[in-house]
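A reminder from the course coordinator: this example appears on the midterm review sheet, so study it carefully.

Given structure:
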């Protein structure tokens, strides 16, 4: 068994992988993007599609930010996506290294997106972020699975701070994974909870693009069917969702490549 990673020193980040891809969802869908997948997450979503990064650190390495900058420079896309795991769930020292990396990326002219579960508002990093992509999670635990989280919930106060900061300036998108009921339809409780959360967030999120996507660890036709059923459910309730900028959309990389890694 591999020994645990040492605590990252100054200028190092815990990274599972980094590679050039086409962004698969949200406002930057289809944009060539260098993805940097940071290791470790404070949640344990059973539908997580990056468990190798969030649930354990077996694939993690300590990478100097200079090497990451070199690799981004070799690929040279417009966008760099900091994802995970949870990029903002770091020690103060590692957060400082993340800030250095993002500042250097901005100085070189890249646009920086951060993917977060929304439980960590780091205002000191805000100036380096062009797009906050926030996917709040809540009690999505499945009985019988070992992968469970003791704190599987969003933090309304933190989400409000996020929506009042980047949301006001058009640099925020919200994403929600909708789980599937046994008969294959979107779980009504999930849709009700999204609506309740959006109401709780108030007018700050009226202009924020909101993406609903089905839980999708299944490849191929089953995934497309889940998307069709989620789309049909939202169309049937179109009036109830009309207060928000709602979009039903699959994760395009999953449509193209299924569960393949590094796509
Ligand atoms: S918050 Fe995101 S990265 Fe963390 S376990 Fe859930 S889906 Fe995975």
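Designed residues:
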């Amino acid at each position: 068994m591999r020994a645990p990673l040492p605590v990252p020193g100054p200028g190092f980040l815990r990274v599972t992988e980094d590679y050039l891809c086409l962004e698969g969802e949200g406002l930057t869908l289809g944009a060539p993007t260098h993805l940097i997948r940071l290791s470790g997450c404070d949640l344990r979503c059973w539908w997580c599609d990056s468990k190798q990064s969030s649930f354990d650190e077996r694939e993690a390495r300590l990478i100097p930010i200079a090497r990451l900058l070199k690799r981004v420079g070799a690929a040279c896309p417009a966008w760099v996506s900091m994802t995970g795991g949870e990029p903002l769930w770091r020690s103060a020292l590692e957060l400082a290294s993340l800030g250095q990396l993002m500042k250097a990326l901005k100085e070189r002219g890249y646009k920086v997106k951060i993917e977060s579960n929304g439980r960590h508002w780091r205002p000191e990093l805000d100036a380096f972020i062009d797009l906050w992509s926030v996917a709040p999670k809540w009690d999505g635990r499945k009985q019988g699975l070992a992968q469970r989280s003791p704190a599987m919930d969003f933090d309304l106060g933190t989400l409000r701070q996020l929506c009042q900061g980047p949301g006001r300036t058009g640099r925020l998108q919200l994403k929600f994974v909708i789980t599937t009921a046994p008969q294959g339809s979107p779980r009504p409780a999930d849709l009700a909870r999204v609506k309740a959360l959006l109401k709780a967030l108030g007018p700050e999120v009226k202009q924020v693009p909101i993406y609903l996507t089905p839980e999708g660890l299944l490849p191929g036709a089953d995934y497309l069917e889940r998307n069709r059923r989620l789309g049909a459910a939202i169309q049937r309730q179109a009036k109830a969702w009309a207060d928000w900028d709602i979009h039903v959309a699959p994760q395009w990389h999953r449509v193209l490549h299924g569960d393949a890694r590094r796509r």
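Residues 12-257 form a domain with the TIM Barrel fold (CATH 3.20.20.70). Confidence is low (pLDDT under 50) at residues 142-149.
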